[in-house]
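Page header: ASSEMBLY MODEL / two components / 520 residues total.
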Amino acid sequence: MASDGGMVAIVGFYRDNSRAIHKALSILCGLVLWHYLAAVVVADTAFLVSPLTVVSKAYEMLFVTGELYPHLFASSWIFLYGYLLSIVVGVPLGFLMALSPAVRDYAHPWMTTLYTTPRIAFAPVLLLWLGIGAGSKVAIVFLGCVFPILINSYYGMRVVDREFVELARSLRMKRVALFRKILLPASLPFILSGLRLALGRGLTGVAIAEWFGATAGLGYLVYFAGQTLNVPVLFVGVTAFGLMGIIGFEILRKIEDLATPWKTSHPR
Amino acid sequence: MRKDVTRGIVSIVVVLVAWEILARLFLENDLLMPAPSGVARSFWKLAASGELGRHFTATLLEFAYGFSAACLIGIPLGYFMGMHKWLEEWMEPWIATLYSIPIITIVPLIIIWFGIGMMSKVIVVFKITIVELILNTAAGVKTIDPLWLEISKSFRLSRWETTYKVRLPAALPFIVTGMRLGVGRALLGVIAAELLASNAGLGYMLRDASETWDSPKLFVTVVLLAAMGIASFTLIKKGEQKLAPWRQTAEW
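Prediction written out in full:
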């Protein structure tokens, strides 16, 4: 019986991939519901638009008018500068704080203040100091990214297994070799998870930075679309931010696999 | 006094004194960087006029409404998500989407939907907090030690009792962690929403001060927000340590 075999195959396929199938169904149902809400229930494009409209608008902005590219590039540059700067500053500072208790104690109150204050509070101040150019925007991204990186470098250095260090001592390793061969690789997974945390915070920083006196960038695009009730463009901007996050996350995951092949899981 | 505490206090005092001296010696006006004494004077003036109180209450109320609503809905939802695999599979793509988009970018959208009043800010806080709570509660429910469930079975606990006496307490530390993560991000969200469009709140004060070039007022707002951030963070960290003393909580 051919049809029975078919049924068995379908049931088997479902059993093997039920997780993926449920997820796909969930996404599909959500999109259909969204479309129905937008097109039939709300039916007001200044309020909510269908996912189809968003896709066609994104297509238009990418391949017809090409107006999305300047915004994408502007945001990417600001993000990259801020992100790299916070690695260059955060990792050594974190190491320094781990190796010297005095530095840690003196820096502690300021770190706590800067880390727990909602970052957006600093945006007008940075704007006042650095002007409306790229400097203030990079600084806002930097402020968002640097603390997760710094704190994770600090912890990574602090929790290095004592046995490793003692082994190195008994092998009479030099200080530089100890740092390069033991301390640095042992703290690498922590630094990498700091980088992962910094990614989302950096993107939020880009969005905040471009609200103030920007003329390009995805944050500006979203802000301007919000002010002019241009909901399709707003959705395109939000989607672009989400995709940037996902792409960055995947790149970091690849780096993680390459740099720390002995770790198979991805701790938080 | 412990050495690290002394050093911390020394560090704060030295920076404040240096700031005061530098501001008085080198800056002709307080536009770029008002001295701490100027900030304190402005704080006093704003507090006496009642302006500070009005904005502070507005932000606090928005935060409180959004946060408690998120707790009321998010914790049970996260609990069911941790208990039932099908629910998790159906909700995960959407939770992940909400989680991966920087919240700040959907603030303009929320303002279009809910207006420039209090409601849009409550929604922002709600949305940020509920995602953290759902994810962490579900993780807490899923990682429960199977031994505890075996014991509850051998004591013949009913389903309700198992939930109430074993599963929920086991998930509690995770729930508090979710709250801690939510507080920081929600504070950022509510200030951002107020800054974008509102007529009250600390975010409004921030925008007002920077648009009228009133630097002392700007710095008063920044200091106040810093105090709020530190206070909420410390409070929840204390709670976390009390509920789960075996767990090493982060220093920051």
